[in-house]
Amino acid sequence: MKMFIGASIIVSVFLMIYVFLQYTVINQDNVYHDDEQKGLNKQIVINFSHVVAENTPKGLAAQKFAEIVNQKSDGKVKIEVYSNGVLYSDDEELAALRRNDVQMIAPSISKLTDLSPTWQLFDLPFIFDDYSEAKQVFTGKIGQDLFSTLQEKNIKGLALWSNGFKQMTSNTKPLLHPADFQGQTFRIMPSEVIKKQFELLGAKPQAVSFNKVYQSLERQEFDGQENTISNIYSKRLYELQKYMTISNHGYLGYAVLMDQKYWDSLPEDVKQLLSDAMVETTNWIWTQSKMMNDEQLQQIKNKSGMRVYYLNDTQKAEWKKQFNSLYQSFEANATKQTLDIIQQIKNIESKK
Asked: Comparing C-alpha atoms, which of 212, 243, 224, 252 is closest to residue 307?
């Protein structure tokens, strides 16, 4: 009897040990899967919000940037792109960035003038002669100096992207001489320099967010507007305007921004990854934007009833003369830093 009891105890002990080992193995498996899930939770997701269509220079650049980062990070970093203002309008996105509701935006340069008046110089008409000149300024020392003006606002500037030169459109008459603007209402981006530009032409400017331009023109709230070919094409503004003047009077660029605190919170390897991907994307978009504007101008000519005119040298001189007081006023009130930048741009022009 004692031997039976002893054997039973030994068997019971072995059974307990076996159950314990099985439980431990199962738990170890669970721990492994939990760690795997924990690793997924460490993925960095950066929400990138912008207000233009996906098939525009900025829209394509945002997608390309996301593809480069998503691929090279092996899933560690994911860029989620939200286009067409689905999250925030161009009037709202900077505040959203500060709240960390989004982590990356790319507003037009005109939107930065409230943060630093120095950026106003890029709204001056005919500040650039061609794409190569704009690229030298945006991707060189001048661009870096301009981003330094945003640091005190806790904004991190990553890159300046190109869209292209702006053109004039109207539903009333061709815009070839300053007198042609007299009395017409124009949608503009919020900028005191742009507003003054249209006032000097005798027009009535009114600032409206980009995602409302089509509806405003459809309701005939404005006679005309200024924009790049790619924006006129992607938003189908050519359907609502009869005349377009290839004036190349202004340049539309975008500043890719992040909140400085958010940027500082990122690991160093992630910062390097984002910086490298941004350089690659920026080089790509400078070529792509010019090609898109050229191709889409031809498509507008082929598929719409819009009449396209080209500003000749004599007419361009008339426009510049009309803006003389704007140039003089701007330089008279500019900071030394702004004047230095203007001089650097003039130096680039003189070397041609």
From this structure: 243
